[in-house]
Every structure is written in C-alpha cells, then in structure tokens.
Design brief:
two-stranded parallel sheet, 8-stranded mixed β-sheet, alpha/beta, 365 residues
Length: 365
C-alpha cells in the first residue's frame, strides 16, 4: 500500500492475519535478518521511521501498528489477559509473514508498553526470539498500584492502576484530535512534557508526524484507556476488564517469569536518565504524586509509596542474568522517555552494535 506521506525508503503494507489486518512499515531486504520494532501506548509505528531508515542493510526492519493504534484494525483489548492480545497479534503477524514456518528467529525492539509486549512475546514463544532490546520499557509488574521491588500490591484490588489513572482531560482532547498547545493536557503538550526531556524538540515536520501518531489512538472503553472502575481504596479507581491501560495493570500483567525464560536470548535495556514516565519517581504514578502532595488523601509511604518501576525491572533482569541470561543496561544521559528520537546517534550505536554481536549464555561480551 503506497503512502505518499512516508519518507522515501519506507514501505507501508497491510497484512491480513487471522486475528486482524495489521499495517506494517518496512525497510530492507525480505531475506535479511528480521527486526521487529514495537511502539508504545498512545503512539504508532511512525515513531520508528528514523530508526528504520538508519537500519544497516543486512536487516529487514518491520514496525507494525498495534491493534487500536495507527492504521491497523481496531479490536477490543481483553485486559484480563494482560498484554496477551498484543503478543498474540504479533505472533499472527510473524506466522503470516512466513517467518515461523521458515524457522527464522526474530530480533525484537520494544519501547515503553512495547517493551512489556515483547517480553510477553518472549515468554509465549521463546524459541522464536533471537534477542530483545527494551527501550524505556514498562516495569514487569505493569503500571501503578505496587509498592516494592517484588510487585506487592498496595491494595487487594490494585487501586491506583488501570484506566482511571488516565487524565480525563487528556483523554477528551485525544478523542477529538486536538492539535493545539494551549492546555497542559493537550496531546502536543504531553508529547513535550512526558515523552522528551526539555529543551529537546523535534523539527516541526517531525513533530506533526509524532503528534498524528498519538491522535490515531482509538479512544474508548475497548481500547484507550479502557473501562474505569471505582474503588473504596485511595486514590479511588481500580482496573477494569477492558482496554489498554487496564491491560498494563499489575492485576493482569506480571512479567517476572522472564527471569526463568528458556532459551535465554540476549537482552539490551536502554533508557534515558531523565525519563518522567517510567521511573522510580514517575510523574504519572499516584504514589509519587501523592508523596508530592498533588493528590489529596495520600495514605503515606508505608501504604502507598511510589512504584519502583526501574528497580522492579532491574531485579527481574538481574535474576535472569543469575540464571545465565546475557543482559546489559545502558543509560543515555540527558535523555527522556524516547532515546531513539532524542538521542538517535547514541541509541543507534547501542542497538546496531548489539544486533551485530554474537552472544552466548556464558555472559555479556
């Protein structure tokens, strides 16, 4: 499928899989080494355009739009399966491309929620995974509602996680396609304040592409953010059973089993040192906002501390390493939630060197 708005060198194709029609951006020879780039929440495959264009010629780069994002089919997300719907969609895509039948292993690069999705994919289909690059990934116990490195819930109903955590004003503006900059809750302002570290700003042309990718998000109870459920526990909301943000709730999402994964693909974890979204002090986490006095009624650090998202993932990956799994954490200085956009040279050097190296279970080279 031609798309005149795409940069030269990229191709957009719609793959009709048994689960849904998936739009895929691609670059490179189909017989090359496959690398699949998975975007995060409130974004699309177009966020990967610059990385795809820079991919070395030996690789076949593929970036799909997830269900309910970009130009792929919109289908309800069953949050009770955690990230399972997304992982199963990607498996259907891999099979439809013939990669599974040919026995070709695939390298996976997942950003933010996409990092959690590729971890779930590896748990479900470890034999198909050549390596994983986790870019500013969500924690292994989802987003919100846990108090320690083991993922212990703050409340039995996981209050503080799920669709109710999404700012309703932002959701409203996303739904109507607001491209303005007047409100701190407008998608454009959220792009600046939470995706990037100031003073970084993409070129005007690139910013419009990134913003369009955000505004293509399908809004509603079945997709983003999902069903909102009230709770008797602070801060008054709990995860529902449908939608994207509920699928990231620790009630349904637990990726800690990655530590025991077999076989053990090498893992590169790349993050910015100033990430405001995925952090031990995330500005989207009720525990941290309560600690700052920005959400009334905070029950205190013994009951509801900030979720240690980064520390939670490090514990799981250190356990993976202790079992023989090759893993490396790379922190890019002066960078926010999108290293591949904010610091493209450093990011590409890291992942391209990683893809080019042979790794064994005896450790990191």
């Amino acid at each position: 499928m031609a798309d005149d708005s795409l940069p030269a060198g990229l191709t957009a194709t719609v793959i009709d899989t048994p689960r849904l029609k998936t739009r895929v951006l691609s670059r490179g020879p189909e017989r090359g080494v496959p690398v699949i780039f998975v975007h995060g929440n409130i974004s699309s495959a177009r966020h990967w355009e610059e990385t795809l264009l820079a991919l070395p010629p030996a690789y076949w780069g593929l970036a799909p739009d997830l269900r309910g994002f970009g130009h792929s089919d919109t289908k309800p997300v069953d949050a009770t399966r955690g990230l399972g719907d997304f992982a199963d969609d990607l498996y259907a895509l891999v099979e439809s491309l013939g990669l599974g039948a040919e026995g070709r292993q695939t390298h996976w690069v997942g950003w933010s929620m996409g990092g959690g999705i590729v971890m779930r994919y590896a748990l479900d289909h470890p034999e198909q995974v050549a390596s994983l690059v986790l870019v500013s990934p969500m924690g292994p116990y989802g987003f919100g509602g846990t108090k320690d490195e083991r993922g212990t819930p703050c409340w039995p109903d996981y209050a503080g996680s799920g669709a109710g955590a999404a700012n309703p004003e932002f959701v409203k503006r996303l739904a109507v396609g607001d491209r303005r900059e007047a409100s701190p809750f407008s998608p454009r302002q959220v792009l600046h304040s939470h995706f990037f570290k100031a003073p970084f700003r993409p070129t005007p042309e690139r910013e419009e592409v990134l913003l369009s990718g955000m505004l293509e998000t399908k809004v509603g109870e079945a997709n983003y953010p999902g069903e909102v459920v009230r709770s008797a526990h602070w801060p008054g909301i709990a995860p529902g059973s449908t939608g994207v943000v509920n699928a990231m709730s620790p009630k349904y999402c637990n990726l800690s089993g990655f530590a025991q994964l077999r076989p053990q693909p090498p893992v590169l974890w790349v993050r910015g040192d100033s990430d405001r979204m995925v952090s031990d002090t995330s500005t989207l986490d009720f525990g941290y906002l309560g600690q700052l006095g920005l959400v009334a009624g905070w029950p205190g650090p013994a009951v509801y501390p900030p979720q240690p998202m980064v520390s939670q993932l490090r514990v799981v990956l250190e356990a993976y390493r202790a079992q023989g799994g090759p893993y490396h954490e790379a922190v890019i200085p002066n960078c926010g939630h999108t290293p591949y956009i904010e610091k493209p040279t450093a990011f590409r050097r890291l992942i391209f060197d990683f893809l080019d190296q042979p790794y064994g279970n005896d450790g990191w080279p």
